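>> received
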Amino acid sequence: MQSAEVQALANATARHLPQRHGVAAGIAMTNALANISGVIGLSITGALRTTTGRYTAGTAVMAVFLVLSAVGALTVRRVAARSAQPATRGPEQNLPVTS
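>> returned
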């Protein structure tokens, strides 16, 4: 993932967790996903190389996951943009202040 995508993912995750732990949880989730995908990606590429004798299939699988991650990043950006809009207040919060 690109750094902007990682930042958007961390920000979207942080908005849905308690503020105090949100940033740490977003960073931890990003690191966990990166580590898991590194292991799985190498395993898939190696298995396809062993089966086909070429790296073409492994490269095609990487291209598919690249497209999926781009769609996911755009979705996260859209959700983050919607959640950044100010929420409407309830009627009890719109009462005039009297002194």
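>> The radius of gyration is 21 Å.
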